[in-house]
Amino acid sequence: MKNITFLTCFLFFLTFSLKTSAQVTQILRGSIFDKQSESPLVGAAVQIAGSNPILGAVADENGNFEIKNVPTGRHLLTVSFLGYNTANIPNVLINAGKETVLNISLEESVTKLDAVVVSAKTQKGAAANELATISAGVLLRRLI
User: Fold this and answer.
1) pLDDT, tens digit, for every residue of 88-107?
2) pTM value?
3) Facing residues of 92 across strands?
């Protein structure tokens, strides 16, 4: 009976250790910048699409990002920033032997808007504010 219990525990720990060691990860790092001005895009979001748990990062003040524990293989990378077109980078290869470093440029999103017309009207005789003063003659005419 002791041998069966020992064998069961041994197989359980062997299976668990093989499962955890089989998942090889690496670091993905890079920089994100404006395509025209080449200035860093501070706060740009980088995410590995379809990852569970969600893997991603936000660019720092120099436009640099780093995502740790990325499983090896090919991944779709999504990069987005307010006012810029979202970039989808397919087949980003993560190797077990070395870090992957990317330089990503985003193009500014140009949206043409229609003209906006602002107009205002005032009522004649209406006070512009609550503390408006009026003459005694006008006040008497309103009371009569």
Assistant:
1) 999 999 998 889 999 999 99
2) 0.62
3) 75
